[in-house]
């Protein structure tokens, strides 16, 4: 069976889907169709995805994943959450980066901005600008999530000033 429909947007949310995500999704579907992706009643089901363990405890995702990051998630951040993060981005970077890395990211943001034309965070070297190297653990992590965990904050109160 050949699928003639192409991926156009995210499901259940109103947010523009970047053309790279559309292309990646279409390529994945085409290469897995009738192998691990099957159609049932007009919908496509990916057996690999359905069998993949999912951590539904968002506040403790760092215990289930090797990064403190939503990297790979199909859903972009909501506009209201982006606004909260933008308001404290400087605090986040200062707390999570070395002085040298902070100066580099500061220059990048000055040139590129923090939010792109699609309304999401800009990408630095193909990854979200907040996906930064944590020298203490020798891995890349989400600076937003690290900041929130370190300050015992959740998204609803993320932008409240740290005391």
How would you characterize the overall build of this protein?
The protein is an alpha+beta fold. The chain folds into two domains: 19-50, no CATH class; 58-157, no CATH class. Helix content is 36%, strand content 12%. It contains five helices and six strands; from the N terminus they run αββαααββββα. The chain has helices spanning 19-32, 47-50, 79-96, 99-112, 143-150; strands at residues 37-40, 43-46, 123-124, 127-128, 131-134, 139-142. It has a two-stranded antiparallel sheet. A two-stranded antiparallel sheet has the order 3-4. The protein has a two-stranded antiparallel sheet with strand order 5-6. A hairpin with a 2-residue loop joins strand 1 (37-40) and strand 2 (43-46). The protein is elongated. The mean pLDDT is 77.
